[in-house]
Amino acid sequence: MRRLFKALGRGGRPLRIGYGRIFHEACADSPVLTTEADFRRMHHLEGAKLAEAASLRGTELKSFFPHAELTGFVAAARAAGKVEAVPLASSLAIPGGPVTRECFEWLILGLVRRLEEAGPLDGVYLALHGSMQVVGLDEAPEAVILRRVREVVGPLVKLVASFDLHGNITPAIVRELELLVAYRSNPHWDLAPTGFRAGNRLIRCLREQVRPVKAWRKLPVLLGGGTTLHMIAPMRRVFSRMRAMERDPRVLATSLFMVHPFTASTELGWSVHVATDGDSALAEKLADELAELAWEASRTPIPELLGIDAAIARAKVSPWRKLGPVTFVDTDDTVGAGAPGGSTQIVRALVEGSHSLRALIPVHDPELYAALVTVPLGTTVEVVLRGTPGYAQPPVKLCGVVAAKAESEFGKRVRLEVGGLEVAISAEAPLPIHPRYWRELGVSPRDYDVIVQKNLFHYRIFYAAISFEHLPVMTRGATSLRGVVERARSIPMRPREPLEDWRAGDRHLRG
Ligand SMILES: [Zn+2]
Question: Could you tell me if 335 and 454 are in contact, meaning their C-beta atoms sit under 8 angstroms apart?
């Protein structure tokens, strides 16, 4: 790496590279569409404010990652020397239902306007997710974003993008890009290093120190790979092979995408992507090798999911409970994957069951939130919890005390104390990945037996010293893994079909 830094910044006028982000992960079955307000509430920065946030002193993604892709990119530009990093616009909303047409147009126009104002650019770097979905749009929204950017900057400006490793990569996306890179960690902690890698490659490419050629494969796989965590078998082998490949100076970037399976895209599937420095045969060979490795790893089924009653029974006898709460991961209502978070099923089971478990449970119910937010603290109320409107959840009668209210970047919520259960009734989809979600409501997660999470992995970064047992719980909601397997597809896909070879699927999916 040090050798590469030295090579950058030689001679010539400074490079000018624009940078920005449009980032969203969609869930086709959520009844809650994603709008401009969702981006504005979570993360929307432009121009000088973006530059400030993407500096090492700034905070790029408040409460989640002080330094993410764009900070990494700016650091790469600084390390290279003689590069002017030009802030465009950056927008991110938490995963949710498909993005509305109006919102998508607003996102693109914001980026396009900044590009037009930016003056001449040599390159553009974008941090994208890869699993967006827009109402009524039947192609990958990221392909549309890249095309619209291309229309503004013209054919000579080089485009590089980074993606979440749950992106669904399509031919139109690959075509527009000089190069692409994906996160290397699941859960994702390497946002800033990913932006750095993207920036470093783009700058070397603009200085003609490298000439990227690409190869990729798409696998007929929707689910598999065990936990899909990068540091655990079977995926560990694939990720370590990718790192080994990149130690060869001819290899610029290797990426693996284990797709987010909850969009309505007709061309879903895992993929691998390799970029080498001018060596097309090597890129093809490595792409085949990675495809084969990923295909093998995808044979391992995803972890067994428990029914709610089985999870409660496990929590009752769990030895880990002495050290901290057992986590129930509500896999069918994963806000981290775009579900609305308004499932009432775990609350119902805990209220009706006989046990002495103390639990923290977030539930999206905007109507109940509106009714409770005006009630004085300490008041005992009898209410019916219905969850997200339009989500067809069983209503649950609750008698409890309005114990706390909070409003922050984690959203607006009221804590209802129901015996040993603390139900956070929220106005927006709850994403309590950080313990502060509960601390702001006056309770400490450590004091409870069970904590319900609405995302699969990311919370583990913040709960690493708090919760030591994680049980995937099956309910019935917008991110049902059973639903993914059962849905009809245009070609045979793993794990529904017992395929032996990926090549026919690859040919179909890459068109
Ligand atoms: Zn992801």
Answer: yes
Assess whether 208 and 337 both reside in one domain: no
Closest by CA to 445, choosing from 426, 464, 430, 429, is 464
- The verdict on 88 and 208 lying in the same domain is yes
Which residues have beta carbons under 5 A from ligand 1 (an ion)? 164, 166
Give the pLDDT band (50/70/90) at residue 11. low
Residue at 501 is within a domain: no
**Same domain as 325, residue 202:** no
Residue 494 in any domain: the answer is no
Least confident interval from 321-325, 417-421, 444-448, 457-461: 457-461
pTM, two decimal places: 0.89
Domain boundary among 269, 297, 325: 297
What's the pLDDT score for residue 2?
A: 40
Assigned domain for 500 exists: no
CA of 166 relative to ligand 1 center, distance in Å? 5
CA 190 – CA 303 distance, rounded (Å): 24
Residue 10: predicted pLDDT: 43
**How far is the centre of ligand 1, averaged over its atoms, from the C-alpha of 480 (Å)?**
17
133 Cα to the center of ligand 1, angstroms? 15
Query: For 37-51, how does the pLDDT look when each residue is reduced to its tens digit (9 = 90+)?
Result: 999 989 999 999 999
What is the total count of domains within the chain?
A: 2
If we measure between CA atoms, which residue out of 437, 457, 439, 455 comes closest to residue 447?
Answer: 439
In this prediction, residues 480-486 reach a mean pLDDT of 91
Domain extent, residue 351, equals: 308-484
Measure 323 CA to ligand 1 centroid, in angstroms.
Answer: 29
- My answer on whether 164 and 61 are in the same domain is yes
Q: Could you tell me the maximum CA-CA distance found in the chain, to the nearest angstrom?
A: 74
Cα 398 to ligand 1 centre (Å): 35
Mean pLDDT of the chain: 95
Please check whether residues 125 and 228 belong to one and the same domain. yes
Confidence category of residue 298, pLDDT binned at 50, 70, 90: very high
> For the CA atoms of 46, 51, 56, 61, what is the dihedral angle to 10 degrees?
0
